[in-house]
Specification:
About 60% of the residues lie in helices and about 10% in strands. The protein has about 700 residues and is an alpha/beta fold. Strand 8, helix 16 and strand 9 form a beta-alpha-beta unit. The chain is elongated and about 135 Å long.
Length: about 700
């Protein structure tokens, strides 16, 4: 991100890199190398001193940077005096060097931000193209202009000197400044985890050997150095690549100065104005092209690879965090599932006694009319309580799994409408349930979801109807169930229709509203309809009433084979297995109404023992029992050599989740009945279990 126009870095942030004195000493070393090269070979290939000053300006804070720049300016003046420069060139050279550093630093801050970070390829390229190149071009032009004014250069000689100085100072800034900045921030590359010391030393030795071999042979191709340099860029971090670049520049530069290497074979044109210039200097343009290619290849590739490695490290860290979060979520979900299963079991156990005994009382003919009405109220309240428990548990549990089971629409409508009947009776509203032609048989579907959707629709119709009545009509066309709930209530306002199925949405949410509720019934009904693969359609006239139609696919239950009958001369023998005496007594009374002979067992161990000693036509098995649970008892009974091994086993348990039913069937049971139970539900479940057992035995015989 682009920064402001500022020269020095901000004072905040971590201070890294060498101390200010190190920059001053390095600048002095660069000046000495330049003096040595000029006096020994009459040529300077690269001018690194300005790169050291620019790195200090970009890396150090204000006071330290100013101190380093002043010291370097003074050393530059001393070097010019030692070199024998005359006035005013002595000052012009130092001022131009300092101006080049200041302008380049100002531009670098503007394009790269206050804390210039060379780890990003985009910033490195912008630094080279938008900060260094224009600044060097400007300073070189001013320097050549001053020289031409003082020494009367010819155009050809001035152009040659401009090209040489531009290449020399451009490469000095491009090589030295990024290298020092990357080395100063080497700690930021330690998290990549790819650089091994032995590998780094080996690759640098390979690079040094290749560069030495190439620049010791005039016939060699200079760009043979690129493969090992790119290998360093791919395998090592940018600071190591910068070190390799310095190594390559040093070896190739010394070889070129001493007259070795492929640069010496570069042909040069014969220009009279350049006759006094040594051939080695005129051939330096080819060497600058080589170095420029090396610089613009190695450093960007290295920063790109570093960025890729950092992205991989972050991706791995985020993946590990996501896996850990998923594991925690799965553990939490498993704990929630265990808690819901336990709560379902614990709430259904007392409800089983209430609903079961209320159902037994309702079937007595010797009760007074008033008592009979009270018992029926208890039955309806028990059913309403059970429905509420199932709604809360399923809403908390969530999920889109469907649990298909046999059902009849007449019984389903009675069950779904039961909680609303008391409210309708209090209002004096008739609620008519009509099962149309084709809808009288048995079907296979998710009873709980169908019941919940219909319950909310019927309850909503009763709630908003004060006069007239509510009519529930079912139709079946061979594949799709259609249940229409028609009321003569207030209807739905046209402006509220788009928000009708939104959760917590109410047409009248004022404090004076006459209808209470949270506004979630229709939303839950719509959600259940969609889970069933269906929908809810609405037609309404404000002030006259509404019709809500639940449409959902519902397959017909396949015809079951004939149930194997018991011997005609004896009653059906049933083994009741339950650790709760209230439950055993209640089931005994319900079965006694069908003239069944019952035997009781208090846990799984006793059930296995009795099944091995006696013959039973049916076993009613609880699941959660001490000593031996119902699942393990079923497996042991199936492994017996007695006739009870093939007897129908029906799970009668407070474990009511779909996965609980699946576990029971996997253990060898033929059916699953969730508590609390009534006469009708028990007899229907027994019929289904007997049919499933007959099918199982037919398959085994085949």
């Amino acid at each position: 991100m682009a920064g402001r126009w500022r020269l020095f870095r901000h004072e905040a942030g971590r201070e890294a890199g060498p101390p200010p004195l190190a920059y001053v000493l390095l600048f002095a070393v660069c000046l000495l190398l330049g003096q040595w090269s000029a006096s020994t070979f009459h040529a300077v290939i690269v001018w690194p001193a300005n790169g050291v000053m620019l790195a200090a300006l970009l890396q150090l804070r204000r006071r330290k940077a100013i101190a380093v720049l002043i010291a370097c300016f003074a050393l530059n003046l001393v070097s010019n005096v030692a070199r024998g420069d005359v006035m005013p060139l002595l000052w012009i050279n130092a001022v131009l060097n300092m101006g080049q550093v200041l302008v380049a630093g100002l531009l670098a801050r503007r394009i790269g931000g206050a804390a210039l970070d060379m780890r990003r390829p985009r910033r490195l390229i912008a630094f080279a193209l938008l900060a260094v190149a224009p600044t060097v071009a400007l300073s070189t032009t001013l320097s050549i202009g001053a020289g031409a004014w003082l020494r009367d250069y010819s155009p050809a000689y001035a152009a040659f000197v401009w090209r040489h100085m531009f290449g020399m100072e451009l490469l000095g800034l491009l090589i030295v400044t990024p290298t020092l900045l990357l080395l100063a921030r080497a700690h930021r590359f330690r998290g990549e985890g790819t650089t091994r010391p032995l590998e780094a030393v080996g690759l640098l030795l390979l690079l040094a050997a290749t560069t030495t071999w190439v620049f010791s042979r005039p016939e060699a191709i200079a760009f043979v150095v690129l493969p090992p340099l790119l290998l360093v860029a791919f395998r090592l971090s940018p600071p190591w690549t910068a070190a390799g670049l310095i190594l390559t520049t040093t070896i190739s530069g010394l070889a070129t100065l001493t007259g070795h290497g492929p640069v010496m074979l570069t042909p040069v044109p014969d220009v009279p104005d350049l006759a006094a210039v040594p051939l080695r200097m005129r051939q330096m343009g080819a060497y600058y092209v080589f170095l420029l290619v090396v610089v613009i290849t190695a450093l960007p590739v290295s920063t790109l690879m570093s960025e890729r490695r950092q992205l991989i490290v972050r991706l791995r860290a985020r993946t590990a965090a996501a896996i850990e979060a998923r594991s925690r979520a799965e553990q939490s979900d498993a704990a929630k599932a265990r808690f819901l299963a336990l709560m379902s079991h614990e709430m259904r156990t007392p409800l089983n006694g209430i609903a079961g005994y209320a159902d037994l009382l309702s079937r007595r003919v010797d009760l007074p009319a008033e008592a009979q009405a009270q018992v029926e109220a208890v039955c309806r309240s028990g059913e309403a309580m059970l429905m509420l428990v199932e709604d809360v548990l399923e809403f908390s549990r969530g999920g889109d799994e469907l649990a298909a089971e046999p059902l009849t629409l007449a019984a389903l409508l009675q069950e779904a409408a039961a909680p609303a009947l008391m409210n309708a009776e209090a209002k004096g509203l008739p609620v008519t349930l009509v099962v149309g032609l084709g809808a009288e048989g048995e079907f296979s579907g998710d009873r709980r979801r169908l019941r919940q959707a219909l319950h909310h629709l019927i309850s909503n119709a009763v709630k908003f109807t004060e006069r007239g009545g509510v009519r529930v009509t079912t139709e079946y066309d061979g594949a799709v169930l259609s249940v229409a709930i028609t009321d003569t209530g207030c209807g739905v306002a046209s402006d509220f229709m788009p928000r009708l199925f939104e959760a917590f949405s109410q047409s009248d949410d004022s404090l004076q509203r006459s209808h209470m509720g949270a506004g979630v019934g229709l939303s839950l009904a719509q959600a259940q309809a969609r889970r069933l693969g269906g929908r809810i359609e609405v037609s309404s006239v404000e002030g006259e009433g509404s019709t809500f139609t639940l449409i959902a696919p519902l397959p017909v239950l396949a015809a079951a084979p004939d149930v194997v009958a018991t011997e005609a001369d004896r009653a059906m023998r049933v083994l009741i297995v339950d650790d709760h005496p209230v439950n055993r007594e209640m089931m005994r009374l319900m079965l006694a109404a069908a003239d069944c002979e019952t035997v009781e067992a208090t846990d799984g161990l006793e059930a296995v023992q009795r099944a091995g000693e006696e013959v039973f036509d049916l076993i009613l098995m609880d699941v959660r029992m001490p000593h031996l649970d119902g699942l393990a008892a079923t497996r042991q009974i199936r492994a017996l050599a007695s006739p009870a091994a093939v007897a129908p086993i029906l799970a009668v348990t407070a474990d009511a989740m779909p996965e609980d039913a699946d576990r029971c069937r996997c253990a060898g049971m033929d059916g699953h009945l969730a508590k609390p139970i009534t006469h009708a539900r028990l007899y229907a479940a027994i019929d289904q279990a007997m049919q499933a057992a007959a099918t199982r035995m037919e398959r085994a015989a085949a």
